[in-house]
Amino acid sequence: MAIDLDDEILQDFLVEAGEILELLSEQLVELEQSPQDADLLNAVFRGFHTVKGGAGFLALDPMVDCCHVCEDVFNVLRQGDRAVSAGLMDCVLQGLDAVQNMFVEIQSGSEPTPATAELLEKLKVYAVAGDDEPGDNGAGGEDNTVETVVNTPSGTVVDTLHDDTDDDFNALLNAMDSGADKPSQQPVAASSTDEITDDEFESLLDDLHGKGKHAGGKPGDAGAESKKEPAQTASTSDAQNETTDE
């Protein structure tokens, strides 16, 4: 099925995702030189997460699948549950290449070609805590891993980064939906009291009758006056009866 290149949301996604993919290429090269850099691990995680979210919004499933498993790999790395290895980096770079190829296909109006099942399976191995390598049969071999140390307070990294990635994805969606009318998401503050102030009531009467053309007084005052009228009427009637008797 052909891609509708006239879709404004798609065009916004292509702009935003294109910039993120370029940045991911640079960050992965840096990560090969600095595998212990926690900021880089978090940044790459956010990049894949954000592109995955935008692709999911547009139902670009092959891109979602590949970005999702790459995101899972870096989620494990940034939590310190796996060490960066040469094999892992090679596999992730292949994953990024697959996503970039899909991106080019989408730009040309074609459906993205899914990443190979073999690549996705390799990435899934790296997305699990531990030190297993794809095809590892448990036999001893040369350890080619590079220890990754994430120096952050325990219990804070995951929560913070989930907030950051949500912000990144929301920013991407805001860019994609720019120009569209949206209802405000801010709740209207409830009044601290149920009673209307004198100034508010005066302003309301001005709006209804015109400034200075109303008798004034709050609704409660009007009710009080109406309650007094029967008593006043009764008093007047008694006075008239006394006059008649005289």
TrEMBL record:
SMART domains linked = HPT (SM00073)
Task: Recite the UniProt keywords alphabetically.
Answer: Kinase, Transferase
* A molecular-function term among this protein's GO annotations: kinase activity
The HPt domain sits at 2-106
Annotated region (Disordered), positions in chain: 174-246
Q: Which GO terms describe its biological process?
A: phosphorelay signal transduction system
Task: Tell me any Pfam family this protein matches.
Answer: Hpt
Protein name as annotated: Signal transduction histidine kinase CheA
What species was this sequence derived from?
hydrothermal vent metagenome
